[in-house]
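Notes taken during the Thursday session

The instructor put the following on the board and asked us to keep it in front of us for the whole hour. The protein is 2-amino-4-hydroxy-6-hydroxymethyldihydropteridine diphosphokinase. We were told not to look anything up and to reason only from what is written here. First, the residues (178 in total):
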Amino acid sequence: MSRAVLSIGANMGDTVAALRAVRDHFGDRVVAASAVHATPPWGPVAQDDFDNAVLVVEAPETSPRDWLEEGFACERAADRTREVRWGPRTLDVDVVSVSVDGSVVVDDDPDLTLPHPRAHLRAFVLIPWLDADPDAVLWTPTGEQAVADLVEGLPADERVGVRRRDVEGWTVVREGDR
Ligand SMILES: Nc1ncnc2c1ncn2[C@@H]1O[C@H](COP(=O)(O)OP(=O)(O)OP(=O)(O)O)[C@@H](O)[C@H]1O
Ligand SMILES: Nc1nc2c(c(=O)[nH]1)N=C(CO)CN2
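Then, after some discussion, the predicted C-alpha cells were revealed:
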C-alpha cells in the first residue's frame, strides 16, 4: 500500500473551492483530512494569507511520482501558473511524505524530493498535519521526529498566525477515524 501526505494551499481566487477540488479528485483514497486553516504567507514574498489543509491519501500500486503527477493535474485544473517562487497561486499541491508498505521513501531527486525538504519548517504544513494525524511522524536527516514536537519547536509568532477555519461541507477526518 502506498500512502502520501499532501499539503494543499491556495491564496488566489476561490481558495476553498480549489482545496475542495483536490479532495474530490482523490475521493475515496483520502483516509484523513485536516480542517482548512488560514495561514499567513511563509517566505519572502508579501502576499495574501493562504488557506491550507493536509490530506492523507492511500492506494495500492501508486508510486511517489504518480502522487506528484496527480497533484500537478489538480494544479493545472485550477489554472495554476508558476510566476514567482513562493508567490501567490490558485493552488499548490506539495508531496510532504510518502511511505510504501510502511517504509518511508527518502529521495533527493530535485523533481521529487522526499520527504519535502522544507516541510519541517512550515507551520502551514505541520499544524494542519497534526490536526489530521495527532501521532504523525516526519522523517528528517537527523532521525524521525514527532510532528507535535516540530510544531512545539516553531517560533511562536509562526504558530499563532495559523487559525483553524470552520468551513461548511468540509469534514475533518482524523487518522484512524475511517
Ligand atoms: N516533495 C515535492 N512536492 C512537490 N513538488 C516537488 C517536491 N520535490 C520537488 N518538487 C518539485 O518542485 C518543483 C516546484 O514546485 P512548486 O512551484 O510547487 O514549488 P513551490 O511550492 O513554489 O516551493 P516549495 O517547493 O518550497 O513548496 C516542481 O516542479 C516539483 O517537480
Ligand atoms: N502560508 C503559506 N505560505 C506559503 C504557501 C502556502 O501554501 N501557505 N505556499 C507557498 C508556495 O510555495 C509559499 N508560501
